[in-house]
Amino acid sequence: MDKIEQKIIETIEQNREKIVEFGRDIWHHAELGYREFRTAEKFNALLKELGMQVDEELAITGAKGYLKPKGSEGPTVAVIGELDALPIANHKDTNPETGAAHCCGHHAQLTATIGAALALSVPEVKEALGGNVVFMSAPSEEFVDIDYKNGLRKEGKARYGGGKCELIRIGAFEDIDVALGHHSDTDNSNDAIIMNCSSNVFVNKTVKFKGRKAHAAGFPHKGVDALNAAELALHGIALQRESFRDADTVRCHGYYLKGGDAVNIIADDVVLEYCVRAKTMEAVIDANAKVDRCFKAGAIATGCGVEIETLPGYFSTQPCPDVSALEAALAAAGEKKPLRVKEVPASAHITGSTDFGDVSAIMPLIQFYTTGLTGELHNNNVEVVDEDIAYILPAKLFALTAYHLLKDGAAGAKHLVDIYEPKLTRETYVDYMEKMLGTTTVEMDPLPILED
């Protein structure tokens, strides 16, 4: 361990209570995507206390705090923490004002970002960096609350459902060369995981079937049942699954937002939220077209109308060609007490999705997980059981990885940028997102009502 690594670790350990208290506070004040105003204010205030220039209100609540002045010489590394939580109303620590809970672990990565900022702001450490570090907060990683996000889109306040997607669109990543990402995990057989595999692409859909009300027992023939249209469409999707290639890891899933008004009324207004995922951009375009076809078929077969509103979701994560900076960070963090580290290699694939994937499409992304939580993520049983592993370890790994990328004249960051092959440019990324964004409509075409 060199003296800068030692200084980073000592600084984080000396600030342990401040870092942990930040994590506890965010845990108890969870907020939903694009509405994380209190969380953002607390994050920004701490960066300002460290003397940083902070660009605020990026994609509504996001921010960028610059360790050195903008335009400083050398590559720039972004340490990224997410602001939002999940709408889980029955967790014991749910925020009563928002109905949200941090059963996603985002409070831990945001806390780690603050811990890294404390360490890298030490003058001795800062001077050892041959480039800049940006501490970035990103809103709305959880792709939920779609009606609200569609409302923001129609108001012109945010175009995409994912916060990093929106940050890419508005150019917030234009001065970043390498991104660092973290996520919490509940598999406490490990302390840390090198997460360097691909993930699924997805698109999100709001599907509205329009029928005609009638008395369900007395005059069902006078109605046009939107619920039947939806059921038929879902059956069509189920039958379509054999057309999906196994290699494309396609997933189609959703739920009813509205299924009708009463048991004795033919439903005239049925709404589904649906998600289509696949391993590649090409595969998700194919699966999305097949799913749309089923929704339209259900409407046509029953005489209903349907409106299919598609919102582009997240891109596939591109494995990083060199994670040696993270490996060096893990070695330093575990020098006194060896860490239990698992590596998920580039050859692996997960069928979940993250908007870190979108970042990885345009620049190299080094991503790791840490544990310290129990329960099942996205469930109401998530708890923080080891604050050192949940908050302090990722802070060290963020700071140490940034240091290893930027030490020796930023040799590590420069090498990584040289060998990385972008999947998309910002322009082609936005072009893809815009092509997936849109509304398809089939007009209602019921038969004439037979008179009694």
TrEMBL record:
Residues 206-297 form the Peptidase M20 dimerisation domain. GO terms for molecular function: dipeptidase activity; para-aminobenzoyl-glutamate hydrolase activity. One of its GO terms (biological process) is folic acid catabolic process. It holds the Pfam family M20_dimer. GO terms for cellular component: cytoplasm. InterPro entries: Amidohydrolase (IPR017439), Bact_exopeptidase_dim_dom (IPR036264), Peptidase_M20 (IPR002933), Peptidase_M20/M20A_hydrolases (IPR052030), Peptidase_M20_dimer (IPR011650), Xaa-Arg_dipeptidase (IPR017144). SUPFAM superfamilies: Bacterial exopeptidase dimerisation domain, Zn-dependent exopeptidases. It comes from the Bacteria. NCBIfam families: amidohydrolases. Belongs to the peptidase M20A family. This is Peptidase M20 domain-containing protein 2. The lineage of its organism: Bacteria, Bacillati, Bacillota, Clostridia, Eubacteriales.
